[in-house]
Amino acid sequence: MLKILIPTLMLIPTAWFAPPKWLWPLTLMGSLLIAVTSFSWFKSTSEVGWTTLNSYMATDPLSTPLLALTCWLLPLMILASQHHTHNEPLNRQRTYLTLLISLQFFLILAFSATELIMFYVMFEATLLPTLMIITRWGNQAERLNAGMYFLFYTLASSLPLLVALLILQNTSGTLSLLTLQYMSPMSLTTHADKLWWVGCLLAFLVKMPLYGVHLWLPKAHVEAPIAGSMILAAVLLKLGGFGMMRMMLVLEPLTKEMLYPFIVFALWGIVMAGSICLRQTDLKSLIAYSSVSHMGLVVAGILVQTPWGFAGALILMIAHGLTSSALFCLANTNYERIHSRSILLARGLHMVLPLMATWWFFASMANLALPPLPNLMGELMIITSLIGWSYWTLALTGTGMLITASYSMYMFITTQRGPLPNHLVALDPSHTREHLIMALHLLPLILLILNPQLISGWVN
Amino acid sequence: MADYKEAPLASRPKTLDPNEYFNLSLEYRRAEEERSAIRSNLKLQYQTQLNNPHRKALIEDPALNRWMYARSHTYPHFKTTFKTSLTGLLFGVVPVVVLYYLFKTDRDKKEVDIKAGKYDRRFSLTS
Asked: Is there a contact between B58 and A396 if contact means CB atoms under 8 Å apart?
């Protein structure tokens, strides 16, 4: 664990002491080396499930894929941010890199935490660098509003979580996941216990986001710069899912009765968020609502508490992380050329940038869950476990998949096919950097077709 | 021109409207000329920008900007009318209530069947 943590921490002095010409290559190489080293966590031979165990942190088949995703994303974020920061003064570039690296550090600590309070503290700690990235480096005036919504939605919903965790510590005497997993189910019968159940999960439901409380997500994703959008879509949403999966351990007998409203919102959210996508004019907003839709499916998969539901949720989280981040990078390539996020302004691009059209094709097909990509495998496992829960869910999840396919195709056809606008005259050709980012996003996704056991949790 | 019939879903084009040629008042003609002048001015501005050899940026269309602003800032301009309240109820409240009722009754029926021993889930281990 330390062989990842200490280099990540040391990337911060690297960002501050690197000579100006070597700033971005050095941090990029450092983060790539860390990303490759993080793959060593996948080799887990222990029988108890927890590997690289020390007093505060451990990895297990649930957190390892998410940790690898986090470490993999930092070099991609650094690559993607290179262009839009190159006009800024040097110290501001160093600050930006420091924020990204500290976000990575907090995320590694959050995913590998064994104490629930440490997870909570790191969960809150990730809010600050993200807030700074959104409000300082966003491009429109609405970024302040977006930052406010992001901060206060997540903060207000996680304060009940703090109280709930303290109550749990008082009643069960421990908050360590290593011992909580062997705790016998508590007798949760009173109304206060029901409120405690909601308090435990509310923070994660808002973070996921659940459909009713998703209002912060389109704002934050649209106003954030590219690295902010990438880390938000790929990892921060999954913090919510990961937290839910960990908390389900202790919420045992009450979940069967309490989950109905939340699963209804999650399933209806798939259909509603997907329908809103069909009406979006802003490309990043479309991808943001598509994230809400996919995460609705993940929430439903986690709430039914079956092995397939959990495995499907984890697979979909990883696959969606890579896909959504890839789509945001593609939207950013559009934005860097025409400085507008409108879908209508950059149409017919496959005639002008055919190689980028290939990446658009792959990312859109991944988004609509094309077999044999892991997006489909995760969705199928969740839908199957939901059918086992109740046959009627098929109406919503089926409609949801149909709408997902239609808005992904809509996005692809509008940006790539069709007539090129007459007044587009000076588009940069696709940079090698952009091709590299897209390849590094989609190559793991394609390789995961061949070895999905890595990301399916404990099901083996 | 007397034989022209409108298609079911298309409106009659302006140049085939008989009122365009007969029974025209002076105010209508003047208004039509003003509108035509505005349109020509806009087309002139667009063509100037389009054919400018030193232009590298996109041509800014204020109508598009207004439309995108309107589409993305719907919440501050939301008005509670009968139709919007009905839409909110129909898409926000009714589905939640109906789905809750649907799932609860379905699951309760399943629970009764399981307790009576009539539900076959011999092979349902992991899903």
From this structure: no
Q: What is the dihedral of CA A270, A272, A277, A282, to 10 degrees?
A: -120
Residue B2 clears pLDDT 70, i.e. is over it:
no
Q: Distance (Å, rounded) from C-alpha A407 to C-alpha A327?
A: 13
Which residues are A59's β-sheet partners?
A51
Instruction: Tell me which residue of A400, A407, A404, A403 sits closest to A268, measured CA to CA.
Output: A400
Within 13 Å and on the Cβ side, how many CA atoms surround A389? Answer: 28
pLDDT for the residue numbered A407 = 96
Q: What is this structure's pTM?
A: 0.93
Nearest to A233 by CA among A280, A302, A285: A285
- State the DSSP string of B56-109: -SPPP-HHHHHHHHHHH--GGG----HHHHHHHIIIIIHHHHHHHHHHHHHHHH
Choose the closest CB to B124 out of A342, A388, A422: A388
Residues from chain B contacting residue A267 (CB–CB below 8 Å): 99
Instruction: Say yes or no: A385 contacts chain B, CB-CB below 8 A.
Output: yes
Asked if B71's CB is within 8 angstroms of A392's CB, the reply is no
For residue B92, the distance in angstroms to the closest alpha carbon of chain A comes to 9
pLDDT, average across residues A192-206: 93
Whether the Cβ atoms of residue A70 and residue A111 lie closer than 8 Å to each other: yes
- Residue ranges of chain B whose CB lies within 8 Å of a chain A CB: 49-50, 55-59, 64, 67-68, 71-72, 91, 95-96, 99-100, 102-104, 106-107, 110, 124, 126-127
Q: Which helix (H) or strand (E) segment is B54 a member of?
A: none
ipTM of the complex: 0.88
Q: Determine whether the interchain pair A423/B126 forms a contact, defined as Cβ–Cβ distance below 8 Å.
A: no
Kind and range of the H or E run holding A35: helix A23-38
Confidence of residue B122 (pLDDT cuts 50, 70, 90): confident
**Dihedral sign of CA atoms A48, A62, A124, A240 in order:** negative
The CB-side HSE value for B25 (13 A sphere, CA atoms) comes to 3
CA distance B16 to chain A (A): 29
Is the CB of A272 less than 8 angstroms away from the CB of B64? no
> If pLDDT is split at 50, 70 and 90, which confidence band does A460 have?
low
Burial of A225 (0-12, 13-18, 19+ CB in 10 A): buried
Contact B103 A342 (CB under 8 A): no
Contact A239, A110 (CB under 8 A): yes
